[in-house]
Design a protein that fits this description.
By secondary structure, the protein is α/β, with parallel strands linked by helices. About 45% of the residues lie in helices and about 20% in strands. The protein has two domains: about 10-95, Tetratricopeptide repeat domain (Serine Threonine Protein Phosphatase 5, Tetratricopeptide repeat); about 115-315, Vaccinia Virus protein VP39 (Rossmann fold, 3-Layer(aba) Sandwich). The protein contains 14 helices and nine strands.
C-alpha cells in the first residue's frame, strides 16, 4: 500500500501523477510507471512520487526500476514513513533495521484505518481474532480461569480482538501506534483505556500488571521475536497468559521480510524463542490466517503462560543452588 496521494507542489506533475494512477487502476502499470517518471522529471525531490513510481514498477515486474525508485525515496524520506528501507530489504537490495519501522507502520495504519475492517475481514477472510479467542476459551476452561482481571491488547487496531476479549476481562486496555486506529476503536467503547504508543516502549513501562496479553497479527511488523518477548514477560503477572499470531515459513531462517513488508517467522525458531523467554507453551498451532491476492497465508497461533509464582520460585532456587522441598 502506498501513502495517500500528496501534492508535489507542481500542477503539471500532479496532473501526470493523476493520469498515472488512472492507468495503474486499469492494470497498465508499465504505462503508469512511465508517466510517473515524467512527473518526477519535473519534481525530482517529491518523495511521494518516488513511492508511487516504485509501486508501479514493482507491479509491472520491473524490479530493478522499483529498486532504483526506492533508493531515491530512501534518500528523501528522512522519517521513513514510506518504508523505503523495508521495500529494499524485502527485494534483497538492503538490510531491514532492527525492530519495528515505527514511522512506516504508523503512517500505514493511519491511512488504512477508515477501511481497515472492510478490507481485512470482508475481502481477505481475516480469521485471527476468532481463532485466538477459541484457543483462549479452551485454555481458560482447562486452567479453571473464569475471567481475567486486566487484559492488554497490543496493536488493538479497530478492536477486532478487543470485541472478543471484552466479556473475558474486568479491565481491557488497548495499545496501538496509529492515532487513527485508536480513534476508530474509541468510537466502539470496547476498551477501558486506550494508549497510542509503540508496543515495546509501552511494555517497558509496565511491571507485572496484566494477567492476559494479546497481539493479533502485530508481531509480524516487529522483526525479531526475542526482544518483544523479553519486554512482554515483565508486564505479565506470574501465571498470566499471552496469545498471539505470527505468519509462518518453513525455511531455516528465524525470520524473513516478505514483499508484503510483513515478517514471516520460522516455526522452530519461534518455539526456541518462547523457551528462551521463559514462557510455558500451552497451545501452538498452524492455520490459515487470511488470504493475500488469493493466496492463503499460513501462520502460527500461540497461547503461552508466564510460569506461576511457585514454579518461578522453584526455578530460581535451583539456579541459585538451593534445595526445593519435594
Amino acid at each position: 500500500m502506498t501513502k495517500t496521494f500528496h501534492s508535489s507542489g507542481d500542477v503539471i506533475a500532479d496532473r501526470r501523477a493523476g493520469y498515472a494512477k488512472m492507468l495503474a487502476d486499469g492494470g497498465d502499470h508499465a504505462a503508469a510507471a512511465d508517466l510517473m517518471g515524467q512527473a518526477l522529471d519535473l519534481v525530482p525531490e517529491w518523495a511521494g512520487g518516488w513511492d508511487l513510481l516504485g509501486t508501479y514498477c514493482e507491479k509491472a515486474g520491473d524490479i530493478s526500476g522499483a529498486i532504483s525508485a526506492w533508493r531515491h525515496l530512501e534518500a528523501l524520506d528522512d522519517e521513513g514513513v514510506f518504508g523505503a528501507g523495508l521495500k529494499l530489504a524485502a527485494h534483497g537490495a538492503g538490510s531491514a533495521a532492527d525492530g519495528t519501522a515505527v514511522s512506516y507502520v504508523e503512517a500505514l495504519f493511519d491511512q488504512y484505518a477508515p477501511q481497515f475492517e472492510h478490507s481485512l475481514v470482508d475481502k481477505l477472510g481475516y480469521r485471527v481474532p476468532d481463532l485466538l479467542d477459541d484457543l483462549l476459551t479452551e485454555q481458560m476452561a482447562r486452567l479453571g480461569i473464569t475471567a481475567f482481571s486486566r487484559a492488554l491488547d497490543l496493536g488493538c487496531g479497530t478492536g477486532l480482538m478487543g470485541e472478543r476479549l471484552r466479556a473475558k476481562t474486568a479491565f481491557l486496555e488497548g495499545i496501538d501506534v496509529s492515532a487513527a486506529m485508536i480513534a476508530e476503536t474509541a468510537r466502539k467503547g470496547i476498551y477501558d483505556s486506550l494508549q497510542k504508543a509503540e508496543l515495546v516502549a509501552a511494555l517497558n513501562t509496565r511491571r507485572a500488571d496484566a494477567d492476559l496479553v494479546t497481539a493479533a497479527d502485530v508481531f509480524i511488523y516487529c522483526g525479531a521475536l526475542q526482544p518483544v518477548l523479553a519486554a512482554l514477560m515483565p508486564a505479565l503477572q506470574p501465571g498470566g497468559l499471552v496469545a498471539f499470531s505470527l505468519e509462518a515459513h518453513d525455511g531455516p531462517e528465524p525470520l524473513f521480510l516478505r514483499p508484503s513488508l510483513r515478517y514471516a517467522h520460522g516455526i522452530e525458531a519461534t518455539r526456541d524463542a518462547l523457551i528462551v523467554a521463559g514462557l510455558e507453551v500451552l497451545r501452538f498451532e498452524t492455520a490459515v490466517l487470511r488470504f493475500d491476492r488469493g493466496t492463503p497465508i499460513t501462520g502460527m497461533l500461540i497461547v503461552a503462560r508466564r510460569p506461576p509464582l511457585e514454579l518461578s520460585a522453584a526455578n530460581d532456587a535451583h539456579s541459585d543452588g538451593g534445595d526445593v522441598a519435594a
